[in-house]
Design brief:
The complex is a heterodimer of chains A (about 120) and B (about 120). Chain A is mainly β and about 120 residues long. Chain A is about 0% helix and about 50% strand. Chain B has about 120 residues and is mainly β. In chain B, strands 2, 5, 6, 10, 11 and 12 form a six-stranded mixed β-sheet that branches. Chain B has a four-stranded antiparallel β-sheet with strand order 3-9-8-7, with no helix packed on it. In chain B, a hairpin with a 2-residue loop joins strand 7 and strand 8. The mean pLDDT of chain B is about 90. The chains are: A mainly beta (about 120), B mainly beta (about 120). Chains A and B meet through strand 4, strand 5, strand 9 and strand 10 of A and strand 5, strand 6, strand 10 and strand 11 of B.
Amino acid sequence: DTGVSQNPRHKITKRGQNVTFRCDPISEHNRLYWYRQTLGQGPEFLTYFQNEAQLEKSRLLSDRFSAERPKGSFSTLEIQRTEQGDSAMYLCASSSTQGFGNTIYFGEGSWLTVV
Amino acid sequence: AQKVTQAQTEISVVEKEDVTLDCVYETRDTTYYLFWYKQPPSGELVFLIRRNSFDEQNEISGRYSWNFQKSTSSFNFTITASQVVDSAVYFCALSDYSGGGADGLTFGKGTHLIIQP
């Protein structure tokens, strides 16, 4: 039984560079979420997909952020022209709309440090 | 707007003591879900429990128990006979009735639980 998988787990990048994170959800899950978590805070919702459609984006998701889920399976989150304020852990999660209500399962997160 | 408040930033207890983590929520929805997640140092958020707003029965799972009181908008979590492995940050979260669709989960800031041997 494989859970939500994220890579890379850690990324250190220079300010201004682009970074991309990948998420592989639990295989039968049709919903996929991205969250951001900074030190001492709870995760904050960024965006979510149902299958390949991006249905909701938080106002936290600036124009430098883009997420895709091209075939309704894995997803990528790209941050362009990184800033120091982007340093955080980026969490991916997935869930299924099968059944009544759905529980969201999280991956181990991808830590980003912008120097 | 939804809001979750975990007033306890950090709790430290000695192993085998009982400990309760508080969670108070605000929502205008009449139907919703409440969750608890555990986040060990590795970073993964581990799902512990989901409770829907219709069900106010308390739940027990081993050393863990949850007390949901709609009248006070609280969903508290108790660990009985705590163990060092329980040390982690615990998050309470709230979602709409789809379980996290349009706005995902709204998390509290978390309670850092330290169990000393």
